[in-house]
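Running co-folding for guanosine-5'-triphosphate.
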Amino acid sequence: MYPADTIVAPATASGLGAVAIVRLSGPRAFAILDAIFRPAHPGEFAPRMMRLGDVIDPATGARIDRALAFVMPQPASLTGEDVAEIQCHGGQFIVRRIVAIAVAAGARVADPGEFTRRAFLNGRIDLAEAEAVADLVAARSDSALANALSQLTGALSARVAEMRAKVIAIRAHLEVEIDFSDEDIRLPSRREVAAEIERLLADVALLHDSFARGLLIREGVRATIIGKPNAGKSSLLNLLLGADRAIVTAIAGTTRDVIEDSVQLGPYALVLNDTAGVRESADDVERIGIERTLRSARDADLLIAMFDSSRPLESSDLDVIRLASNRPGLAILNKRDLPAAISAGDLRRHGLTLPILPFSAINVEEAATLRAELTRAIAALVAPSAPTTGDQIAISRERHRDALAMALEALKNAHSAALSLMPPEIVAVDIMAAASALGAITGEVSGEDILDAIFRDFCIGK
Ligand SMILES: Nc1nc2c(ncn2[C@@H]2O[C@H](COP(=O)(O)OP(=O)(O)OP(=O)(O)O)[C@@H](O)[C@H]2O)c(=O)[nH]1
Ligand SMILES: [Mg+2]
């Protein structure tokens, strides 16, 4: 266990704000609050009831701020310990002073993530829920928020617990076989056990495979705009951002470097990269730019391939078609306001497989169509691969993916052991390995090192 001392930290971000919160947790939280907070009105603190008063420095009696304070007694508190919070005015000097007098009164400044870690150690939340706290705070889109929130409120934990319960049930069947194999009772046949394991394998695999889309939801989808010089890539970026982010000129080769910015599309965060036009170039700067284009295109989750409909196809267009082959994305047949030199059919004939949107990047009114098409492309990428009956939760942490991979491995071993009529004890070993791999996700089994790694990513005060 951790040392039962009392910790203090600002719970709000540094910077100026109307209000800041200083939080105390531990056995001396209430005693320290009593020492540094003088209520304006007589009476006692009742749980979760705000009181007005003055924060004072007990050493000098000096008033530091007029503030509100409340207490949450253990065990039904944030951390499972006695918790006190002071809502003071949101100046950094005030916050630092209050933390300093709390320390002088016996508290210790909390380590990053220490409040959440204590909540975990006291059984207030499990490990997957604790991790979701960090994801929720870091969320940059509605989809990331929804996924983190459902994990925070236990959806992932419930799914994992359900799978673990099935593993334990299989283990119980094996126990029967171990204990009663000499007696004349009906035992579940090995085929039945193998079939049970198979169903479970499918469940675990589904959750394991949700990692790819969970990561896209959490981090945002990365899209790279590629096309020959002058196709209208930077115009498209600016249109999507609703701002003059990239330089647009009639000179081919205007953009030299990768320009990155983010935009919200429906519930998703899209990270857009505008790039240097793809072509053979003798210019050193442009060549380096084009190398960056290729790198960005390779790393992108989604490609936006742009073609200029007012000019005949060139070898650089064919390069773009090649870059886009077998990749998710959208093709834009731009400049449809000008007389057409090529059609969507021409692009198809040269092997383009992406959906094609005839477009004009200089027409603001077409932006809505583009947004809708891109949102559809992202949704296709982020949607669950198999239709699920339950919630559509997606894991987004490598730790969870690795634990599920271990569970899969163990279940596969158990499956083949069951079918090859190995002794039940041998099957049971693999089954229990699957159970503990699943348990690691919610923290049924976890070492200090794992906890250190998880809570290191938190900021102080969380
Ligand atoms: N008529 C018309 N002109 C367009 C359209 N889209 C872009 N342009 C013009 O085409 C020229 C090139 O546009 P950019 O957005 O700079 O093209 P780019 O692909 O970024 O070009 P590079 O950075 O050089 O690779 C500019 O003069 C734009 O105003 C369009 O839909 N219709
Ligand atoms: Mg450009």
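Result summary
The radius of gyration is 29 Å.
The longest helix spans residues 155-180.
Job closed.
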